[in-house]
């Protein structure tokens, strides 16, 4: 009779959801079932490597990662293997289920973002990893060789990943431990030309954005000066004399020199006007 652990492993590799479910129900302790002859890969590692979404969903629901994230002998998580093999659907499932594992690194210092950049099929995972709210991947991360995600994307010829990383703030001039920039890792001449144009485009947009920001700041400062001038008459050349009468509605009444010389009579004071030539 075949050992249940071997049967479970074979069922996962074949993508047999019904058989996997039956075995883990009968032998719940075999849920993780690490294979010590294969880097201690667990059931979820195998499902992620082969892109079996339904089996991965079943294993997660059964509590495969209930206590901790699975690691194999290379310190690789199931998410890393999914990213390495280009299985976007499984990778997205694992990111949503266990976002904290996004920042984990393997023995070579590679995280899920770097591994996604190494495979063009995993490019959709790049934007997902960078846009997380709680545990976003860093476009500035480095592996043991000092390579950034841009280095890996350039080496693999993943042009879309290059654009996504630059938009996220990756440094195109970053050097690894051997003093190589991402541009030097370009897989093809066409890729190198595209990368150069891409960097030039982002630098141009950065300069234009800075100029637009300065212009907005100047306009804002000018607007403040105009508001201050409206509240301070002396700033716009208006001399306020003691003869000005300011009613409650805020409108100033300027008296002419002739009006100032007119005598004030009881009639003028009470009626607010004076009929010249009439008896006083």
Automatic annotation (TrEMBL):
Q: Which SUPFAM superfamilies match?
A: Ankyrin repeat
The protein's matches in Pfam families, at most eight in alphabetical order, are given as: Ank_2
**ANK repeat positions:** 39-71, 145-177
Q: Which stretches does the entry tag as region Disordered? A: 247-280
> Which keywords, in A-to-Z order, does the entry hold?
ANK repeat, Repeat
Feature: compositional bias, Basic and acidic residues? 249-261
**So which domain of life are we looking at?**
Eukaryota
> What is the protein name for this chain?
Uncharacterized protein
Organism (species): Peltaster fructicola
């Amino acid at each position: 009779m075949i050992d249940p652990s071997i049967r479970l492993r074979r069922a996962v590799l074949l993508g047999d959801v019904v058989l996997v479910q039956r075995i883990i129900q009968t032998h719940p302790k075999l849920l993780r079932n690490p294979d010590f002859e294969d880097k201690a890969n667990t059931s979820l590692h195998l499902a992620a490597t082969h892109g079996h979404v339904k089996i991965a969903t079943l294993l997660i629901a059964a509590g495969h990662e209930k206590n901790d994230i699975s690691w194999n002998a290379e310190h690789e998580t199931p998410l890393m293997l999914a990213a390495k093999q280009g299985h976007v659907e499984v990778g997205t499932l694992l990111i949503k289920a266990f976002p904290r594992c996004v920042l984990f690194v393997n023995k070579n210092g590679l995280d899920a973002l770097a591994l996604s950049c190494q495979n063009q099929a995993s490019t959709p995972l790049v934007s997902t990893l960078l846009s997380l709210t709680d545990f976003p991947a860093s476009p500035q991360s480095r592996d043991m060789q000092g390579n950034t995600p841009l280095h890996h994307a350039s080496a693999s010829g993943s042009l879309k990943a290059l654009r996504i990383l630059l938009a996220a703030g990756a440094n195109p001039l970053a050097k690894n431990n051997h003093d190589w920039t991402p541009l030097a890792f370009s897989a093809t001449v066409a890729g190198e030309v595209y990368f150069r144009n891409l960097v030039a485009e982002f630098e141009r947009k950065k300069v234009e954005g800075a100029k637009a920001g300065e212009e907005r700041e100047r306009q804002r400062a000018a607007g403040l000066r105009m508001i201050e001038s409206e509240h301070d008459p002396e700033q716009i050349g208006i001399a306020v004399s003691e003869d000005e009468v300011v009613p409650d509605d805020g409108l100033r009444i300027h008296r002419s020199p002739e009006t100032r010389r007119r005598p004030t009579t009881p009639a003028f004071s009470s009626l607010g006007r004076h009929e010249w030539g009439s008896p006083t």
